[in-house]
Amino acid sequence: MTDTTLGPDTENDQEKSIYDELPDAPPKKKLKLSWTGKLGVVIVAFWIIMAIIGPLVAPFHEADIIGDDSFMPPFSATEDEGNHLLGTDYLERDIWSRVLWGARNTVGISVVATLLAYMIGVTAGIGAAVRKGWTDMILSRVNDAILSLPTIMLGLLIVVALGSSIPILIGTAAIIYASSVFRIARAYGQEIMVMDYVESAQARGETIWWIIFREVLPNAAMPLATDFGLRLVFVVLFISSLSFLGLGIQPPAADWGSMVRQNLEGLQYGSLAPVWPALAIASFTIAINLIVDDISAKSGGDLAKKMI
Amino acid sequence: MSELFEIDNLQIQARKEDGTPIPIVKGVSFNIKAGEVVALIGESGSGKSTISLATMAYCRPGLEFPGGEVRLHGKDVLSMDPLAQRSLRGNNVAYLAQSAAATFNPAITIGEQVTEAAVLHGTLTQEEADQRAVELYHALELPDPERLGRRYPHQVSGGQLQRLMAAMALVSRPDLLVLDEPTTALDVTTQIEVLKAFKKVIQDEGSAALYVTHDLAVVAQIADHIVVLYAGEIQEQGPTDQIINNPKHPYTKRLMAAVKPTPKAGMGDDTEFEHEAEIANIEVRNMTAGYGKVKNGEPHITVLRDINIKIKNGHVVGIIGESGCGKSTLARVIAGLLPAAKGEVLLDGKKLEPDMKNRSSAELKNVQFVYQMADTALNPRQHISDILGRPIEFYRGMKGEEKRAEVANLLRLVELPVEFASRYPSELSGGQKQRVNLARALAANPEIMLCDEVTSALDSIVSSNVITLLKKLRDQTGVSFVFISHDLSTVGSFADEIVVLYAGRVVEQGPVDQVLAPPFHPYTRLLISSVPEMRIGWLEETMQKREMTVGIARGVEITAIGCPFFNRCPIAIDGTCDTQTPPVREPSPEHFISCHCTMDEIAGVEETPQQILHGFEKAGPEGGSAIKML
Does the structure show a pLDDT above 80 at B457? Predict the structure, then answer.
């Protein structure tokens, strides 16, 4: 049948079906990582597994002084102990084993500390944006005070006062980095607070916790996740700096940051000893950023640009 | 006439991630002669903006031109090299975007921005361009043309800014002017002022124009030729006369049906107010509200003054006025989002706390606010099932299966497929989102819904569907509605009563058939005359009317004393209207008009359209333009 032969009613119905509101948006796409993202997942998974089982698979103990010489080159073998994949360090210890042992400290402490920093910073930051007024004023000024102190000095002060232990290290790093997370979370929170859906939730009578975690946080999650990758790098460096000053991980326990510092003099002898732990830090932090960038590029599109 | 501009089998496409093309524009061809205005009509998503950008050999990132030609003076612009394309843009083809406010840079003077393109392209020197700009300001009837260029964008009104965009586009005498929905975002009274200026300047300059819009009534005033577009394909094209008076294609007919009728008495459908009596009454008494610190019951900036409104059981009250008159503020005060400085809001005769924070959950449930922009009103990170499910759970305590069934009910009520429950808002179209927005308010099972411009952001067909839905909801649920809009015909077809707000005061209120019939408050009359009719020649005819000559192109002044409409009123009495608050008159029961003139005087004006000049009016059309209202 053609349009001209249709009665007014059927014609109407047909038009409605053809010209009704424009086609539905496509159904939601599944998140699919690109090859860079997949590479990131593989590397991060490797280091997390090593953080758990590293001491079991490492050929030597982290504290074993087994080499014939300090700063031996990679693939050199010692007489009675066997091959040293990455050579030996300044105290004649096997670097490959120490990198695997160190994963537990470095990955473990920095991930836990960063997560803790995010929990504190995001809750307080979005809370300040939601509550506004005096709550915001007090939280922001306290935060400004923490931010105004040099991080390493503040860290030293806390660790010297309370003694160096892993929980203290984690707590110190978390508090120091929570202050910068607070600022970002608060800025994003304020941007989201002006949206009508937040007002609508407030008008419904929702509690502050609902508004923070259900209305605001999901919309700030992507930019915050992108920042997480960056913040993790800073925490690794912070822990390493403390270790270098003798207040971080206590020797002979291995962590990547202190391994770099301790082996720096090896560069003078043409040894690659400080490069391996540095590569471990780089591979871990870059891999995290690869994943985060890939997810944000897929789900936000222009979000990566916005961050720059 | 020669063909100035030819679009020949133009195709534009996007690509999916796997590289398969998605056609956006599917072989569109039409021509524009020199001095001709061609209108491109279609609803949002039909590809009209994409085509209008293609006239400048531009497409949005991610799109490409797989075929077709766009020829200016016989030369294809799509195949030009980028440098030639650059000199074409702003020089031969000028583009006027929809929102002037977003186009102007607030930190640079108007004059510099208007002349920038011409000077940059080297067509004019700065002095010549300045001179040319002043000529255009005169032609566009902008105030104080000599010094206008030295002002900043925030110092002129929205309508003036829109006209300044036309000046910006015309400065280098382009061959083709592309106007992308230039009046869509404006109030009716501003729209008419801008339309008039555009029409005049296009005629004076003799340039060709491509006018992109979804509003047929506007097109009828300005275009010579109409191209009707749907989903990237031309459905029908022809001279304006033929398309308006004798449309052939079913889609064009459907577009015509969606054009809003002229507001008049009796346009609404008959509804009997036989809803259950248990539904609440909202009453607003002597309310004053505004922004900033409240001192002695006066806020720093007063937006609403001495408002008295009653909303009866199951009624629909339409609130109408130009932007900035306080419509949304009124709804926000009722909802408790903005505490009133003075006066009170009563629900069922019980006083509501001014601030929503102090209201009980039951009170919050009973008064629901529906936001204008569904895009910002729905959380993009929540599924539709959560958006609708939360108020159901929060107010009505339903959980699990019961809640799910109720979400499905709501979706069916707003005529959406139940499967949408598992989608995110970004996966719905604009009209569908607006339906979810309404459903969320309904989820609370409210007694009154405050709808703030819920159809304004939608195009005509989608918006008429939403109005149909609202009518159905009104009949099925018996909820009272406060329906805020600047669109008098929409309000007229839906409301039982109308409240006309001007500069924060109620100037007229009453049953819809009485407000839309004489005697009118002068402001109501201005609003009614400004609604475009789909009739060729309507614009010229209307501009002759006296309320137009006085009321158009004048700013709104919020005054504490006197009548706020004084400076735009054709029957204002000097020395009285500007100093004394007008008395409220009641020409018929429940119909109130706030005016110093008696009903006889107001009616007299409608009978004898003689010019009564008052202090503000310098020149109007010389007498005799006797066009009787309605």
Answer: no
Predicted local distance difference test score (pLDDT) of residue A105: 85
- Does residue B333 contact residue B345 with C-beta atoms inside 8 Å? yes
Architecture of domain A102-307: Orthogonal Bundle (1.10)
- Judge whether B219 is closer than 8 Å to chain A, CB to CB: no
* Residues contacting residue B162 through CB under 8 Å, at least 6 positions apart: B100, B182, B183, B186, B190, B194
Q: Between A and B, how many CB-CB pairs are < 8 A?
A: 79
Rounded distance between C-alpha atoms, residue B39 and residue B227, angstroms: 6
Using the structure block, give the residue that is written with the tokens 């050579």: A87
Q: Would you call B381 and A221 a contact, using CB atoms and an 8 Å cutoff?
A: yes
Overall average pLDDT of the B426-430 stretch: 81
- Indicate the domain borders of chain A: 102-307
**Amino acid making up residue B285:** R
H or E stretch covering A222: helix A217-244
Contact B497, B511 (CB under 8 A): yes
A21 vs B337, B423, B432: nearest CB: B432
pTM: 0.76
Domains annotated on chain B, with CATH? 3-258 (3.40.50.300), 300-378+444-515 (3.40.50.300), 522-607 (no CATH)
Q: Is B295 exposed, middle or buried (0-12, 13-18, 19+ CB in 10 A)?
A: exposed
Q: Tell me which H or E stretch contains B473.
A: helix B460-477
Disruptive mutation site among A21, A206, A209, A217 for chain B (greatest number of B CBs within 10 Å): A21
Alpha-carbon gap, residue B12 to B68, rounded angstroms: 9
Q: Is residue A23 over pLDDT 50?
A: no
